[in-house]
């Protein structure tokens, strides 16, 4: 007999009072994902220029962006950042869709289906906002994420540069209609 379980991720929208917690999980998950493939100097540059308190607060206050903590059994397991309208980092899909700018699960919780559930939840949040498609950017060397998104049905359609310190990296842009 085969048993199936629902992972039970719960989302909570992040507000400015949780700014430091958001910065901490942002840095942790970015390090866990990319530290082994990048120089310490370029990682530090990114943290100082993109994941500093002022920049994250500005993102949090943008009415077209939404951040969520993902919880399982009262443990923070990851987070999500969605961009709508002018908050999107690229003008793609003629603003008929939304962007998943950040979707991260802490390394210790990966491989348990949480990423799939968080991705499905992001789609549902987009649908509630009237969207029928999404897009995101994935570093060309993040093979695990590329395979995940291909399995979910996303299609590559373009690329852009993601600047990490002195390293201009290529992100593959992918989209999904639903």
Highlighted features:
Aminopeptidase; alpha+beta; about 180 residues; disordered N terminus; 7-stranded mixed sheet
How are the elements arranged and paired?
Layout: E1 10-13, H1 19-34, H2 40-49, H3 53-61, E2 65-72, E3 75-83, E4 98-105, H4 114-128, E5 133-139, H5 143-151, E6 155-164, E7 167-177
Parallel strand pairs: 4-5
Antiparallel strand pairs: 1-2, 2-3, 3-4, 5-7, 6-7
Short overview:
The protein is α+β, with helices and mostly antiparallel strands. It has a domain at 10-128: Gcn5-related N-acetyltransferase (GNAT) (Aminopeptidase, 3-Layer(aba) Sandwich), CATH 3.40.630.
Shape: globular
Biggest sheet overview: 7 strands, mixed
Q: What is the overall pLDDT average? A: 94
Give the count of helical stretches: 5
| Total number of strands | 7
Class inferred from helices and paired strands: alpha+beta
What's the CATH topology name of the domain at 10-128?
Aminopeptidase
Helix content estimate: 25-40%
* CATH arch. level architecture of the domain at 10-128: 3-Layer(aba) Sandwich
Instruction: Give the terminus-to-terminus CA distance.
Output: 32 Å
Poorly predicted runs of 5 or more residues: 1-5
Secondary-structure element series: EHHHEEEHEHEE
Strand order of the largest sheet: 1-2-3-4-5-7-6
C-alpha Rg (nearest Å): 16 Å
Look at the structure and name the CATH superfamily of the domain at 10-128. Answer: Gcn5-related N-acetyltransferase (GNAT)
Level-1 CATH class name of the domain at 10-128: Alpha Beta
Q: Estimate what percentage of residues fall within beta strands.
A: 25-35%
């Amino acid at each position: 007999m085969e048993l199936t379980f629902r992972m039970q991720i719960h989302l909570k929208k992040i507000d400015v009072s949780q700014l430091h917690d958001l910065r901490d999980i942002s840095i942790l998950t970015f390090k866990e994902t990319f530290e082994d493939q990048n120089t310490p100097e370029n990682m530090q540059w990114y943290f100082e220029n993109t994941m500093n308190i002022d920049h994250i607060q500005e993102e949090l206050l943008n009415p077209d962006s939404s951040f969520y903590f993902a919880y399982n059994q009262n443990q923070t397991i990851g987070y999500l950042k969605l961009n709508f309208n002018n908050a999107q980092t690229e003008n793609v899909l003629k603003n008929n869709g939304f962007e998943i700018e950040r979707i991260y699960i802490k390394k210790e919780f990966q491989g348990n289906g949480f990423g799939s559930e968080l991705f499905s939840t992001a789609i549902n949040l987009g649908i509630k906002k009237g969207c029928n498609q999404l897009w995101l950017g994935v570093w060309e060397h993040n093979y695990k994420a590329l395979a995940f998104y291909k399995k979910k049905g996303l299609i590559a359609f373009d690329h852009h540069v993601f600047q990490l310190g002195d390293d201009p990296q290529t992100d593959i842009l992918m989209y999904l209609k639903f």
